[in-house]
Amino acid sequence: MNIFLSFLYAFLVGGAICMIGQILILKTKLTAARILVIFVSIGVFLGGVRAFQPIQSVVGAGITVPIIGFGGTLATGVIRAVEEYGFLGILIGGLTATAAGVATAITFGFLVAMVAKSRSKKS
User: Fold this and answer.
1) How far is CA 38 from CA 35, 67, 82, in A?
2) Which of 8, 34, 45, 77 could form a disulfide with 30 if both were Cys (CB 3.0 to 4.6 A apart)?
3) How many other C-beta atoms can be found within 10 angstroms of the C-beta atom of residue 52?
């Protein structure tokens, strides 16, 4: 039963985050890039006030898979690096914590670009 609740929480929270993003796209004049920045900033804020980890322990992938999880990982990485390296941790913490995700995105983006046929966007 515990695994079912984990899946349910992840589905509900992740779905709510996506629903909020879709509502922002449809009902406001915010661009997708601005909405992305808002969600990453929310994740950074939650990570900065150390609320991201407790939320993550309850809802799991519901908060880590959407882009809010990237912001939370950035903040958590910076906090850990500052505790270990001091001021230098501000510069290296976020990059170290998110390096695997960024490298994976770049690699798969490159591979898809090599396979897919580019075309003009129709107006």
Assistant:
1) 5, 10, 24
2) 34
3) 24
> Is 73 in contact with 98 (CB distance < 8 Å)?
yes
Q: How far apart are the first and last CA of the chain?
A: 49
8 A C-beta contact, residue 23 and residue 35 = no
pLDDT tens digits, 13-62: 999 999 999 999 999 999 989 999 999 999 999 999 999 989 888 888 88
Q: Which candidate, 67, 69, 65, places its Cα nearest to that of 36? A: 67
Average pLDDT value over all residues in the chain: 90
The rounded Cα 63 to chain-centroid distance in angstroms is 8
Q: How far is CA 20 from the centre of its chain?
A: 15
Amino acid letter, residue 75: A
Contact of 72 with 17, CB cutoff 8 Å: no
Q: Phi-psi category of 118—alpha, beta or left, where left has phi over 0 and alpha has psi -120 to 50?
A: beta
